[in-house]
Amino acid sequence: MAHAPSDRYRATEPPAPVVEPAATPARGVAFGTVAAAVGAVAIVMLGGVLAVSAGLVVVAGATGWAVATALRAGAAHRLGARRRVRMAVGLALLAILLGQVGLWAYARSEGGVLGPLDYLAETFGVLVPLELFVAWIVAWATAR
Fold it and tell me: Is residue 8 part of a domain?
């Protein structure tokens, strides 16, 4: 006895991707820039005001993640993967660098006399390049 094919066994097409009408590359960059600014301020607050040093590596990772996530949320599918990764990494590294400059400026306001590179090398040493590396890797991995 032959049975008619059931609807449950028919091949179906994958669902159409959800289109976010407000998503644009500019919106993604704006969201990522806000996340980068928050990360830079967090570095200055923790490293300068609260005098935390090793925790800045965690803040750098969180900044990389936040920048990439914000960029993805704002731009959605309207930004190509390669471009999104480059923008996320660039914004995350810029945030870390601005945070380091902010640390130096805070130290100057407290009576410091060293130049920016001397101060960062003397006070934080290897943590500065480590922060940049962690922010880069986390932003790269999250934005992919």
Answer: no
